[in-house]
Structure formats: structure tokens, C-alpha cells
Amino acid sequence: MRPGDIIYLVALRQTSAAAPSTGKLIADFGFDSYLDGVVNAFTKTVTEGATTADGLWRAYKFAVTLPAAAGRVHIRITPASGTDIVSPSEWEGEVEANDLDSIYAVSAVPVASASVSIGPSVDTPITLDAYRLNDCSATRLDQTGAAFNLTGYTNARFSVWTRDHTGTRYTLSSGITFGGVLGTIVWSVPEDASFYTEIDAAITASQDFVTLYYDLVADQGGLAAKTVPLLKGTITLRRFEAAA
Q1: DSSP strand pairing (90-95 vs 71-79)
Q2: Which three-class secondary structure state does DSSP give residue 48?
Q3: Which among 56, 58, 59 has a CA at the least distance from the CA of 18?
Q4: Share of the chain above pLDDT 90, in %
Q5: Which residues, at least 6 apart from 21, have a Cβ–Cβ distance to it below 8 Å?
């Protein structure tokens, strides 16, 4: 609950003879309200509801405007006079300056190193088979876990290189499609991709795979000066057996 919020309380009222107490107005209720133990007059209204299924109580719904300051709230509702019974008659709660939604908005900041960055905050590893057609797809998410809107991004490039940038560099710039507001990215690595040769030395050395590095970038708004990394990470390039 935040300062100034309206909350709704339901109280049941009956006569001392255990019959529903009907037709009551706000003046028929004693309404004591406190903020941090100090009397504080809250604005309130009441609406008469229905009789409970057991026929013993009449329901009354109170709309209460919380005070303008945060603190501990205590409310007591009683009959203004007479011998009627109100149940429940007391409520307590905490009024805070921020609710969970506003706290979430603060905590869900971009996890990239700079708040202006929209690049991926974590690596996305992929596995490819050497000398084979490899169909790839991914969904780009923002820092809150929602689909990243790729509308307006153009000139996509999928590039692969060795860790020390001494091996065969490869760039695929065609056939990469974006799913707009869905955040999807789809592309295929052809079976004659030049970086597949990196597996040859690994096989000669009795190794089953080699680790390479990739990124998939595009130009934000179609501007060459605004190249953005959308995906990046390691490629596990696995050995092949059958002829291509």
C-alpha cells in the first residue's frame, strides 16, 4: 500500500440477537484510524452489501483513503452506538513510499556494463557440425526477459573467428531474418562455410571439437554507425564423419 491509495475493507454487522443489521450509513459506524500510533482521520465511505448465506450478518464495504505519509496503519470499526456487533473490527498494515511494481522497475535495470547498452548481457553458446548445413535460430530478450523488438534493424552479419583472431575469419551477411517484435533471429550456416576448416587440425590432433567465437550484429535503424551486437558467444564446432 502506498500513501494516498484507496483500500477496501469488508466488515460484517449483526444485532445482539444475531440478526443482520441492515440500513446502516457511515454515521452509524465508529471509525478509529491511526498512523504510527497517532490518531489520523482517514477519508472513508461505506456501501451496504448483502446478507451472508447463513442469514446472520450484513456486509458493509468501506472505501478508505490512506494518509499522505508512509507508516504503520491501524483501523478499528465499531458500532457508533447500541449493542450491534461488527466483525472483523480491526485491521493493520504498512504504508510504504513504493509498491512492488515501482521496486521492480528500479531493480530491472540493464545488466550490461553501461545503461545505454542494448547488447546481450550474457553469451549464447551454439553447437555446429563441421561441413554440414546448420540451421540456427534464437530469440533475443531484453533485460526484463521480454522479447527484444528487432524492427528497424538491418544489414545483419554473422561472423566467426578464432580466439586469437589468427584463424580463418568468416562472415555470413545473407539469409538472416528477424522476427520484429517477436525478437526471433533465424539463419543457416552453409555446409561449405570456410571456418569449418578449423576442425581439420583438431581431428589430426585426435580432438573431437574445436571452440570458436561468433557474434551476430545488425545496424540499428539501418545506420552503419550504429552497429549493435544482438547475439554472441562460443561455437563448439564438432567433427564430421560422412563425406559432405
Answers
A1: antiparallel
A2: strand
A3: 56
A4: 65
A5: 13, 14, 15, 58, 84
Average pLDDT on 110-128 reads 62
What pTM, to 2 d.p., does this model score? 0.52
CA neighbours closer than 13 Å in the CB half-sphere of residue 218: 22
Report the alpha-carbon distance of residue 123 to residue 233 in Å, rounded.
4
Spatial neighbors of 64 by CB under 8 A, at least 6 apart, are 6, 7, 8, 9, 33, 42, 43, 44, 75
The count of residues in the chain is 244
Coil, strand, or helix at residue 107?
A: helix
3-state secondary structure of 138: strand
Mean pLDDT score, 102-130: 61
Calculated CA dihedral for residues 75, 81, 86, 90, nearest 10 degrees:
20
Q: Report d(CA 108, CA 103) in Å as an integer.
A: 9
Question: What is the grid cell recorded at 53?
Answer: 448465506
